[in-house]
Design a protein that fits this description.
45% of the residues lie in helices and 15% in strands. It has 7 helices and 8 strands, in the order E-E-E-H-H-E-H-H-H-E-E-E-H-H-E. The strands form 2 sheets. It has a 6-stranded mixed β-sheet. The protein has a two-stranded antiparallel ribbon with strand order 6-7. Strand 6 and strand 7 form a beta hairpin. It starts with 12 loop residues before the first strand and ends in a 12-residue tail after the last strand. The structure holds zinc ion. The site of zinc ion has 8 residues, from loops.
């Protein structure tokens, strides 16, 4: 695994909003997308081994072998994920002065068994932790907005609220201003807006106060000399 340390440079962009998902790991407010590695092959192998384990008699040599193989597969997935999340968080934090994420109800989602395996594989929580730590190191502004913000229900162009969309709907055309949006990119743009505080109306302004600034700007001089 290659550790990529963030480099202390001025961010080339002011801010970015990031929408995390399962199909696409991250969609950014500037339209960039990050696809996560495909874990499904390894995950399938793990599930097969686990079924095998359940059948094997306790304390047998074969069972022990299967157990070690399973652990190795788990490590491989974890390494691949860690590598991906490190590289992505380094890129995002290096390039942007303010980074805005949405607070996801991960534990609530993980209770949904269908989703839980996919969500755990993605590593959203890890990604947030990495972005936060790197933001502190580089003196970036890291923000998390409330998950109750209607980021996928609102036009990022004009602020019109079209309401809940079915998950299948990937493209939206705003009834008010006519602009067309990719669902996730529109959400990412709204995440950025809410986090940075560009508001469309007074309701927005009130909600904005709920924004939590997790890592505030740090003087460069206080950053460790290693950078
Ligand atoms: Zn609109």
């Amino acid at each position: 695994m290659v550790e990529v340390e963030p480099v202390q440079v001025d961010a080339k962009n002011q801010s970015i909003g990031i929408d995390l998902g399962i199909e696409t790991f991250a969609v950014m407010s500037n339209g960039d997308k990050a696809i996560s590695p495909n874990y499904s092959k390894l995950d399938k192998k793990i599930r097969r081994k686990q079924r095998k384990l359940a059948r094997q008699s306790k304390d047998s040599k074969r069972r022990n072998k299967t157990r070690i193989q399973t652990a190795k597969l788990h490590n491989r997935i974890a390494d691949t994920r860690k590598d991906f999340l490190h590289k992505l968080s380094t890129k995002v934090v290096s390039e942007n002065q303010a980074i805005v994420l949405e607070d996801l109800n991960i534990s609530g989602m993980v209770k949904n068994r269908k989703l839980s395996r996919a969500i755990s594989l993605q590593g959203w929580r890890e990604f947030r932790t990495l972005c936060e730590a790197k933001s502190v190191k580089l003196g970036r502004d890291f923000r998390v907005i409330s998950r109750w913000e209607p980021t996928s229900q609102t036009c990022s162009e004009c602020g019109y609220r079209w309401g809940k969309l079915d998950l299948k709907v990937r493209k939206v055309q705003c009834l008010n201003c006519g602009s067309e949006h990719d669902r996730d990119e529109n959400a990412a743009k709204n995440i950025k807006k809410v986090g940075i505080g560009h508001c469309h109306d007074s309701k927005r302004t009130q909600r904005q106060s709920k924004t939590i600034s997790v890592a505030s700007v740090i003087e460069v001089s206080s950053v460790s000399p290693r950078l």
